[in-house]
Predict the 3D structure of the following.
Amino acid sequence: MKIAVCVKQIPDPATPYALDPITHFVVRPAEQVLDDTDRYGIELGLQLAEASGGTVTLVSMSPVGNLQGIRQALAMGADKAVVVNDPALRGSGALVTARVLAAAIAREEADLVITGTESTDGYAGVVPQMIAELLDLPALTFARKVTLEGTTLKVERQTAGGYDEVEATLPALISVTSGAVEPRYPTFKGIMQAKQKPVDQPTAADLGLEPATVGAAGSGQVISEVRPAPERSGGVKIKDEGEAHLEIVKLLERAKVI
Amino acid sequence: MDFALSDEHQAFRRVVRSFAESEIAPHAARWDDEHHFPLDVVRAMGDLGLFGIPFPEEFGGGGADFLMFCIAVEEIARVDASLAITLEAAVGLGANPIHHFGTAEQKGRWLPDLLAGRALAAFALTEPDSGSDAGATRTKAVRDGDEWVIDGTKAFITNSGTAMTSLITVTARTPDGGISTIVVESGTPGLVIEPAYRKMAWRASDTHGVRFERCRVPRGNLLGEQGRGLHQFLSILDDGRIAIGAMSVGIASACLDHAVAYATHRSAFGRPIGANQGLAFQLADLQVAVEAARLLTYRAAWLRDQGRPFKQAAAQAKLFASETAVDAGRVATQVFGGAGVMEASPVARFYRDAKILEIGEGTSEIQRLVIARGLGLPV
Ligand SMILES: Cc1cc2nc3c(=O)[nH]c(=O)nc-3n(C[C@H](O)[C@H](O)[C@H](O)COP(=O)(O)OP(=O)(O)OC[C@H]3O[C@@H](n4cnc5c(N)ncnc54)[C@H](O)[C@@H]3O)c2cc1C
């Protein structure tokens, strides 16, 4: 079985992000790290590959930089990576990102595509569903538990009130929630081998994508302005005269938290 | 000259740090308090590959340099000295003599489990009546047919009584008049592990007295040349001293980090305590010492990795780094004030744990002796 796991290199969350003042894009330093939430998808991919004798290919779209984040993912045990690396992709919106990733995944002839639910730097949360649509795959999103029996995928799909049990036959796409599996630490050998593993770096053209369909041009969107989020205002102060807990319960009920 | 660590060294440091912070740090205070040796975590460290780093891949090792091992020890020590010494002793004192002096057959028999972290080896040199003066070893080994018969008592032996301990390498006087190194496998009749010591520091590390009572092992358990044990363990200790330097750097930099954070947030007289030069300058000096200790340690590891002489460099690194760690513990505790004396504070444990670094694997006095002799002085 061939498993493709979508992963992303992001600027180290420990250091504050910078936005380009003109394009409003995140400034991507050469040294980026693996998006922490991608570790769940990689772990799931590795577990399914180990159980079925399959392979795991990482698929990513970003300026490669020094590939540090991709090597982190390879060190966990993935077999190889495809990083679509092309200056023409600057300014790509979510749909173009999905188009590029879908093209890379199609080239790998993956039986199963695994993604996170959203990236930690972009938070759009729509790319997985778009990839599934472009590849004409069933999308089993927000998986909190995944089992594979033969070619049947069974997924517990996280919902606001609990979970749904959904099923599909391969090929398919799953997006996994954090906590679905316990990501492994890369072993020492894994780290050392990561440097030797193949990292294919095709351009959009290599994937057969027309220049007009990618990058800012293909996105049909511009970020016209970026403003800091407004400060949280006010809040409610409750003075405790013995009955405060009742007031708090009332507030929580009104917010539908309890 | 290039002071940058390679990509692999940096990537590995990041992984060990995140493992240490997630799997060890949250529990370190409790394990220390309960004198609890956390077997599962030691096994998980084995799964990461930490116990095999500087050894050949042929026996399941990582095939990496000693600097890589130092980075692992430093990162574990940043959160827990007990687990750092467990690793350091298992590699530096446990597997290392077998790697250096074992025959192909001995290596094939013992190394794979040790390097994979499925088993731990201990090294029993110190005796109740001889530590620094290790040549005064009283433990005896005599030949009887195809066996060695060992009698004697060893003191303060790290990793000697864990559920994972598979063997203890013991130094003993042999009839040739010299000292020889012999491997005693766990469970051998006549090998008696005393109850664990109650320690001031490294409380989650496993330390026992060990007795050998007419303890018989096959003659093939002799490690290296008969009568050359003194020479052998002195060279093993040179490696260990670099690793103790790395442990010291880990503890010292943890103390510095905690102290800086506290000095920034704690206020007295209407401003952060770190706004007082009397305190800020102590931390500035401490940072300089930590960096110097790290450089001395990495340099010693580098010399070793280059195949150059490193005995003096190892002694310098161990001496300076261990004394820096103790200074760091003292300064950090002082910065924390009363809170620093409470076991609930992070620095109290580091302060206690730092002290042994000036004692184990050659006291500070012995390091100065080595260094002074290196200067050609008749001490
Ligand atoms: C927690 C712990 C774990 C240990 N693990 C191990 C282990 O795994 N294996 C092992 O073999 N040993 C182990 N040791 C023992 C350790 O290596 C010895 O304690 C150390 O070498 C010092 O020996 P000693 O205790 O006999 O002190 P001594 O040699 O009696 O020294 C006492 C004091 O005299 C000083 N002194 C001695 N000679 C001189 C001199 N010539 N000039 C100036 N000063 C001198 C020393 O520096 C020291 O301050 C461990 C010790 C501890 C505390």
The CA atoms of residues 145 and 219 of chain B lie 8 Å apart.
